[in-house]
Write a sequence for this structure.
């Protein structure tokens, strides 16, 4: 993180963290600071700094990534490892058991996370049966049901997102796109699919050329590159299928909009405060903070046709199942006039019912 891009509060936290680390280093390394005969109290204070104070400061500095027990214990273990190198061995000897306790907590958390994977495997057949029976849109429904029945833990979210990717890459070819009065495609009047196919071709060519050259230089690097390239190809294939099979849908009370595997969102009509159309939408800057766009990539620059300004921020599901809040949504559809007519009707109908 560049120092110029952080807030004033974060700069003060950086400074405080630096002071904590520097003071603990200085107390054991500078001859001008004599240690008492029994330094156990000083060492205990340093261990508290490294295992409690420093991790809390780091969590505050990186608060956008979330305050979680897992992250705290990870920073705590790293802090105690750092303490082991900073505190001289003769002073650290009475506290050698402390890092092992911290590692033990980390192992317990790891075992719990593995348990969640077994729980997911147990519930998976039932989840798939429910999706098939209710004929639900798997792109939206599958992660939601997994979160409800299993857990909202980030590992489970990532795995469910990866399962969707493999499903669309391998098992969705017999499905037909959802077509109806209330569905609207985002990609048919663009070069989105052609653009992704071009990327796939580029990755294939790069894999053949660079892999064989790297194989002579480093087998490990060539294998890692091969795995990453194969994953990228599968992702782009799955993304194409997800875009093709999941058009924007106007349900009775909310809109479902997605752009492949990269982002998806459910927007209640009751949360739409204002709508900008065509010329006004085209002049809207997509770089504004809190704005998400569902605009299919094209070889030329394209502008939004519709801007939804929300009353309250809504979470969108991004790559690998991570969530982020947005208060403005930019859209571009293939049939604008029909979409505008239906969306305005549903928003007005929802407002009149309330």
């Amino acid at each position: 993180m560049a120092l110029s891009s952080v807030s004033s509060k974060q700069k003060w936290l950086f400074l405080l963290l630096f002071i904590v680390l520097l003071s603990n280093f200085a107390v054991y390394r500078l001859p001008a600071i004599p240690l008492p005969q029994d330094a156990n109290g000083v060492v205990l204070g340093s261990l508290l700094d490294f295992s409690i104070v420093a991790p809390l400061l780091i969590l505050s500095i990186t608060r956008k990534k979330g305050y979680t027990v897992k992250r705290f214990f990870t920073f705590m273990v790293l802090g105690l490892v750092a303490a082991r190198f900073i505190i001289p061995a003769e002073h650290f000897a009475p506290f050698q058991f402390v890092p092992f306790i911290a590692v033990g907590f980390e192992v317990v958390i790891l075992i719990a996370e593995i348990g969640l994977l077994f729980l997911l495997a147990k519930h998976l057949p039932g989840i798939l049966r429910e999706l098939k029976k209710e004929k639900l849109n798997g792109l939206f429904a599958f992660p939601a049901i997994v979160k409800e029945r299993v857990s909202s833990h980030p590992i489970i979210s990532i795995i469910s997102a990866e399962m969707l990717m493999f499903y669309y890459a391998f098992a969705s070819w017999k499905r037909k796109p959802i077509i109806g009065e209330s569905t609207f495609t985002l990609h048919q009047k663009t070069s989105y699919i052609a653009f992704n196919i071009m990327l796939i071709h580029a990755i294939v060519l790069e894999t053949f050329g660079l892999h064989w050259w790297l194989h002579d230089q480093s087998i490990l690097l060539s294998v890692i590159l091969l795995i990453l390239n194969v994953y990228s190809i599968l992702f782009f294939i799955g993304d194409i299928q997800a875009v093709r099979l999941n058009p924007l849908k106007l349900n009775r009370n909310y809109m479902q909009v997605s752009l492949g595997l990269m982002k998806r969102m459910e927007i209640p009509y009751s949360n739409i405060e204002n709508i900008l159309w065509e010329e006004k939408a085209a002049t809207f800057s997509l770089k504004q903070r809190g704005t998400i766009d569902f605009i299919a990539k094209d070889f030329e620059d394209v502008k939004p046709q519709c801007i939804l300004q929300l009353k309250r921020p809504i979470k969108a599901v991004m790559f690998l199942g991570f969530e982020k809040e947005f208060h403005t949504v930019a859209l571009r559809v293939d049939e604008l006039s029909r979409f505008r007519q239906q969306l305005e009707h549903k928003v007005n109908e929802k407002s009149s019912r309330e």
In short: Residues 3-95 form one domain. The CA atoms of residues 337 and 343 lie 10 Å apart.
